[in-house]
Amino acid sequence: MAKPLQYAGQGLFFALFIGVIGYFSAHPSYTYLQPDETLIKLSFAHAGQLKEACRERTPEEIARLPMYQRKSTTVCESRERADVVVELEMDGTQLYHVTMKPNGFSRSGTSNIYRRILVKAGVHTLKARLKDHIGEEFNYVHEETVDLAPSRIMVIDFKAATGGFIFKNKNAARG
Fold first, then answer.
1. Which CATH architecture has domain 33-49+81-171?
2. Dmax over Cα atoms in the chain, in whole Å?
3. What pLDDT does 174 receive?
4. Residue 12: strand, helix, or coil
5. Total Cβ atoms within 10 A of residue 157
6. CB 75 within 8 A of CB 64
7. Res. 4: pLDDT tops 70
8. Is residue 116 within 8 Å of residue 139, measured between CB atoms?
9. What CA–CA distance (Å, rounded) separates 110 from 79?
10. DSSP per residue, the chain
């Protein structure tokens, strides 16, 4: 008689467990973005320029080196890189400003950024600027008028080899 009660108890427990899991899989409902919002993701890694310029070795310096070290005629006294400054504006209002230090012990690595910014949907003028050298002026500036549709994601990437900032619209994940 104990076995049927044990099986019934186990069945009741599993049914209750499945019911709780089923309820919380649909409730409370989760909204990723509000209907009038869009998300801007600023995400990239970039290495700033070297703080000190490299120089060419003189013929006397090369002659003093062992044979296996003579292949490299360029010498860099410091591997330290400049800070990377990033600014993002929307319709003339600054959304984000950051000064990023290079990674690594020698401060010779990349500067990494990942930032999520919620904004109102609509047609806006976005202006992204980046400075990766010692000096005051920004050496990469990109301005574009974009239509930020509701519940969409605008990804801002940066590739120096292709000329700078890249703006991409993506669909947001539906919840």
1. Sandwich (2.60)
2. 100
3. 46
4. helix
5. 14
6. no
7. yes
8. no
9. 12
10. -HHHHHHHHHHHHHHHHHHHHHHHHHSS---SS-TTEEEEEEEEEEPPPBSS--EEPPHHHHHHS-GGGTT--EE-S---B--EEEEEEETTEEEEEEEEPPPSTTS-S-EEEEEEEEEE-EEEEEEEEEE-SSSSS-SEEEEEEEEE-TTEEEEEEEEGGGTEEEEEEEEPPP-
In contact, 130 and 138? CB cutoff 8 Å: yes
Alpha helix segments (H runs only) across 27-123: 59-64
Distance CA 81, CA 111 (A): 10
Residue 2 has pLDDT above 90, yes or no: no
The answer on pLDDT for 32 being more than 90 is: no
> Which residue is it, tokens 């003093």?
64
pLDDT in tens, 108-153: 899 999 999 999 999 999 999 999 998 889 999 999 999 999 988 9
